[in-house]
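Hi W.,

Here's what went into the run:
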Amino acid sequence: MNIGEVASRSGLPPKTIRYYEDIGLINPMRGENGYRAFREEDLHKLTFLGRSRTLGFSIEDCRTLLALYEDRNRESAQVKSVAEEHLRQIDDKIAQLQSLRGTLAHLVQCCQGDDRPDCPILEDLSGRPAK
Amino acid sequence: MNIGEVASRSGLPPKTIRYYEDIGLINPMRGENGYRAFREEDLHKLTFLGRSRTLGFSIEDCRTLLALYEDRNRESAQVKSVAEEHLRQIDDKIAQLQSLRGTLAHLVQCCQGDDRPDCPILEDLSGRPAK
DNA sequence: CCTTGAGATTCCAGTAACTGGAAGCTTTAT
DNA sequence: ATAAAGCTTCCAGTTACTGGAATCTCAAGG
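Here's what came out:
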């Protein structure tokens, strides 16, 4: 398989696939013309990576997960632990965004949004303690 | 004022302040020794920027907001529009994370997390349609 | 007066995970 | 034969800083 086919089958752009090779996530063979020659196994890995990235795992997490995926003697606890840590970080991020959203929504609501210059949003940003 | 004082008064690290000058957000004067000489106005701007960044506005948004802040003839509608767009993006992000969180939490729950290799998380990642 | 030490300066590199584009080779289709 | 598509590598850019090196200035202690 050439990169184009693997790209459409895995859903990842060719650029990304080359990048994944660069950073050592995959190791496709080469044909005599210098083209990458992907095996089914490579495709599986790429699919795995695509899905992992979709779930928000970092590349380093993906590296770990891929290694566990390939290790027939892994303990599922290791996988679960990576996923749990990621889940915690997602929860943190959500909480952060929600708090931020609250403040911002309040400010937006306070602003008339007309042709006059008075603006509670700018007032808040300028550092005055919000009333 | 030297950069150190502005840093502690604005809450921004000196590095960040220099960076903001680099990209043209502020324009402090210089003393004869080559040191930046900040006026109160610069400090206000930096405080404004710090608060805006805390609320998640991008640097480009900050540039726009700062310009509006300085423009005595602005229309509050312009400010509101920037903030509303940002709010929409935050909502999108939250929705994305929550959906992701749902999937991930389900997978984590399904995984025993013991010393055996069987792992529903890896099975999902490997691309098999989840049962 | 000299010498630290703190604080200032610039510049270069690195972060995360790609993405875009240039220049050039191979293969395929007309 | 030639043009288009697809592949290759390499360099740069994205976001918003942050760390570190080499150098310079300033304030205080002995």
